[in-house]
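Field reference: "sequence" (input) and "structure" (output). Example, Pectate lyase superfamily protein domain-containing protein:
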Amino acid sequence: MKRLILALAFMLPVMSWAQSIPQMDRRVTLSGPTGLNWALSTKADVSNGKLSNATLTTPNISGASINGGSVSNADLTGVSLSTTSFTCQNAAACVVSSLIQYSPGWAQSVERTLLLRLEDTVSAKDFGAVSDYNSASGSGTDNIPALQLAVTSVCANGGGSIFVPAGSYAISATNSVSMACPGLHLYGAGVEGTKFYLTGAGSAAVFNFNAAPTDSGMYFYGGEIDHLSVYGANNGKQTGVAFRFAHCRGCSAHDVRTFFVFQGVQNYAGNSNSVYNSQFHQMLLGGIGLETYGSDTGCTGSTSALQNCATRSDVFKIINTDVTASLNSSINTPPAIGVYIHDFMATVWMDGVVLEQVSTGVKINCPNSSTIGTCPGFIYGNRVEVESNATNQNGVPPGALDADNFSELEFVSPQFYGSVPTNNLVVLNQTRFQSGMVKFFGGKMQGANQACIVSYISDLTYVGGTIAGCGLTAADSADAIQLLNPGNSSLDGNGAQISNMSFCTVGAGDTAGNPNAMTGLRLDTKTDWVTLSGSNGRGCGQLYSIATGNTSAHLNLSGGNNAPS
């Protein structure tokens, strides 16, 4: 009996240990649909533990450290990620989690969260912009409300940039996007990437930079729009402007493009605004490529008072910009004007500007100002090229430059050509006030039915240019330059300094197909103080002509000229 009790005492621990081993079916393996690998891959509960090099799909992870492995569509709370491949598709945590770091290989500074990185750019699509314009139906979702909401949001934070991703966006021609705060920047993905299409009828300014002036009621500061296109419907019912600046100092439109709009840019009041590296194609009949102006209404008194006038416009720059006009001979409306400068516009710079098939290249006048001091001031053009088209114009206005009541104009290397000639290429006038001086240096002017240049002003200078192809249909006015009596008899008679010119030909023996013999310079009865020197009349009928009755003692017309024999 003692032996039996002793044997049982030795066996009990062994039996207890054996009962802790689970009984497993021989069919349970590591692999297969019921294997341990499958079982462990479907669920992993880790509490205060460590999970390394795992592949997790749609997990709910809280308070863990994940090193290596792959995580997809996770809901993360208090998680630290390190060297983990994180695939972000639909989970909200992908965007808002402060735990996900943005650290591309090219970054050279500190890591930031993905949320902070996304906040660097505001997209119009964040506010409901939809790029669903259908060219076949000419319709789509009106994006004016979405764009306005984006502007309002950015302005609430003191201004900033709004990106419009590539796509085709419909916008109503009836309403504007009011760019209503300083420092606002709207930009696209390039003129071939981000495209706005006007729908319906209307005359609104599409993008209207119209913040309230803050600098003594004169200006607001800064606005910019670039790298996008605006397309009109060419339906005869849209007469608005694509881009407008009002009372801005330092606004710009650059790297933009339009097709079939009535007006490309309008600049009113303000200072130091600009348009550059842009194209305005197929401007609608009767429209304007670029317009800039101010007003002296309510601004009278001393010179300093006028300089501080809230509606004065000063320094508008047009650089490396093209304007082309639409043509339609069956509609009795002339092509668009290229550039229109008027009233209280103090300074305009044009450099590398091309104006093609326009009714008038550059128009300058002063119909509303009260004195010459508030008419267009210093207007400068460098390499301005104009190809004018007289369709539906009946010979007027001039094709390249139409200037009336101004202080000073200067053009360097102008290239003025009448592709479908009007009566004159250039007319310089002074109908209300005494106009100032005009200077041309170099360049070429060619192609007019009558005189190429007609001047009624008292101070014209032309040095080193070529003028040919004038008087194509009028033998009695086939003149390169006509100096005519001013229509206003109270103003000074005209005068000029002409030197080193080539009249009547554009090359050896070439008279540009002109059927009429040209005269280089024609002087009217009141023309006074004229010098003609160092000029060549090869191909002309005569170098100059003086009207009967001109008794001026201040004509010096024989200074080293080569007159035709």
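The longest helix spans residues 2-19.
Residues 14-24, 88-97 have pLDDT under 50 and may be disordered.
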